Amino acid sequence: MDGTTQSARRYEVISGEAEFRALQSEWDALWSQAHGYAYQSFGFCWLAWKYVSKPHGRKLKCIVCRDDGKLVLVWPLATIRRLLWRCLVPLGPEGGDLTSVLVEDNELTGELVAGAWDVARKRCGADFIHLSYVREGLELWSLVSRERRVLVAEPYTVSAATLRGQGSWDDYCRTLGTLFGKRPGGFAKKLSKEGTVAVRMLDPAEESETAAIIEWMLKCKRVWSERTGKWSEWLDSPEFERFLGKLIYSSEVPSIARLIVVTLDETPVSAIVVTLGNPCASAVIAGFDPHYGKCCPGLITIEQCVKWAFESGYDLDFGVGNEDFKIYWSRGQTSTAWTVRTINTHWGLLAAHARNAVRGLIAHAKTPWRPGAAAPHADEPGSSHAPAMPSHRA
């Protein structure tokens, strides 16, 4: 890269709300050109900032890059204060969304993302950097995987269904086997023995009904989470509940998502929030009435979500998890994404050493001592408890 190109490229960290808002038109254009996910769109990120990150006291750190004045990269982040330390995280709720940088896929992608990673490390004032679900194969992943000081590294399965170009819905369904012994449509037939089954996509403008269904869905989700042990702090957050509603309808930005509801005798039994695609839609969150659990109403909603994406010309991202229905509808198309936390400053390293020292002392105190036996030894301060990072693949 020659000096002229270097001087024309400029990175900036946007920390002010007005400057963030002013990016909308350029951001929308880049998102369309780069075929971004919904979580990378300006609308999603604006709502995430206003209704999730800002109310929880986080500080905006949106990295942008311009080349000859044109916006070519956006990476929306925020910092969280934890006692005396700051952690840099993706903007918005840390649920099942992947982490990636919004940038076009071309010969400059690697350079641009590397520059953004350098800015994140050096100019955002963070002692730790926590990135949720970075998919293997991305340039961001190759950079993070080379970091020496890794505190946490956890792998997760992610699934996505390729639906475009599959002929008709019936053609696609014929390529599938059975899910728990049922072919597509089978679970709806089972539930119909209990009453009249119907599927609705709510009108985005019906804010009150949308809010009521989302409130009900999250209550169902909390019951499911308690039973399975898969808990998220956001399930109890009124800000997150409001955020989901704003994804479906907001006067500030275009609608980003839809709410699909399955009813039995006009009473909701399951629901799902799904984003619009560009061209990949994303299943955000779902819930079902446990009273009808044996009839699998949640699987009916998932099927209707896949059918809607198919008929709308979208692929469908199921996000993190290796649940059977995700493997089924994606026809086994899975990949791996990593949640990684790196130590970014000496101050952060001191905190990590202190944490390990405290753990060692607690382990030492809990170890029984027997007369005649050697005294137990505490863990060495600074020892790593994180899983090993995989080797970098070209």
Automatic annotation (TrEMBL):
It comes from the Bacteria. Coiled coil: none annotated. The keyword Phosphoprotein does not apply. It holds the Pfam family Acetyltransf_6. Residues 369-394 are annotated as: Disordered. Residues 188-326 form the BioF2-like acetyltransferase domain. InterPro entries: Acyl_CoA_acyltransferase (IPR016181), BioF2-like_GNAT_dom (IPR038740). GO terms for molecular function: transferase activity. Keywords: Transferase. This is Acetyltransferase. It comes from Paraburkholderia ginsengiterrae. The lineage of its organism: Bacteria, Pseudomonadati, Pseudomonadota, Betaproteobacteria, Burkholderiales.
